[in-house]
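RETRY 2/3 - previous attempt timed out on the joint model. Re-submitting the same 337-residue input unchanged.
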Amino acid sequence: MIGWIPASDSYQHPKLMSKNNGLRQGMQIAFRLGTELTVATIIGALLGHALDRFFGTRPWGLAIGVIVGGAAGCLNVYRAAMLLDMEDDGDNNS
Amino acid sequence: MDSPLHHFEVHTIIPIHIGGLDLSINNAVVAMWVGLAIVAGSFILVVSRGVSPIPGKLQSLLEIILEFISDLVYEFIGKEEGKKYIPFITTLFLFILACNLIGLVPGSYTITSQVVVTGAFACGIFIMTLVIGFSKHGLGFFGILVPPGVPKIMIPLMVPIEIVSMLARPISLAVRLFANMTAGHTILAVLFGLAMTSPLWVSWMPFGFTIIINGLEIAIAFIQAYIFTTLTCVYIGDVVKLH
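RETRY 2/3 succeeded.
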């Protein structure tokens, strides 16, 4: 749909700065969604582990923390994807 | 042959020790200064020449960047609220972009490949969003932990999930920029190492790839700066609008 070549009315824009840049949008998806899930899971696991050490509830905090972190990661990915969807709609309408 | 991680090492140039603090000037600090000088210098140059209604090359470039950033800010934070954040967001974008691009010059230092630097940016932004949230909404800011339309039974489950997702934001922000810059530069170093050590009839291949990946790295320098600023806008926008 949107390629490397900028539209005729935005000829003065540098390619990566133009709004409808396919490469930029694709890369954004690729780089953004990957880290969201991993980092949230790691944070959940670390928080669970910290709670374990604090309260001495050895395996349970970590187990629940990983699950809660995974859920948070899914939520973050969902939100990021919704945002990308919104941007896409905005571009099509304009 | 040097290790592929050799160019991430920090070398002290002028040692300065005050008390127990190590305030030495090292190559990372110098790279940061150069980035700062390029960004500030180009704006000072344009303004000192006089901003003309018919823009020159540098002025029109800077105007395009400013317009681009203000569009971004208006989209994610809102037209009324967003105005006061434009200077901050522009500075952030241009500084990260300049640091990313300086890293591509052979022999220089990629300051954004240090998790200390990106982590400091991300922590600063995280604290800033908290300050904005609490000063704007007071204690009602805790409402950000309960997404709208959640049934009452789900609230005890949603609050820890939201806390984790909130804490994950600055860390994913920092890790994304750091990891992408480090990975790209390491790949370049490895490929160049292969090109230098292999016989001529093989070495054209890794050398060709270094050229291609250098091009990709330029694109990544722009995209990572763009993603960092977009996400900063999204986070500030979330806090300002509170859903």
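The helical segments of chain B are 27-49, 57-76, 79-82, 86-103, 115-137, 155-197, 200-241. Closing ticket.
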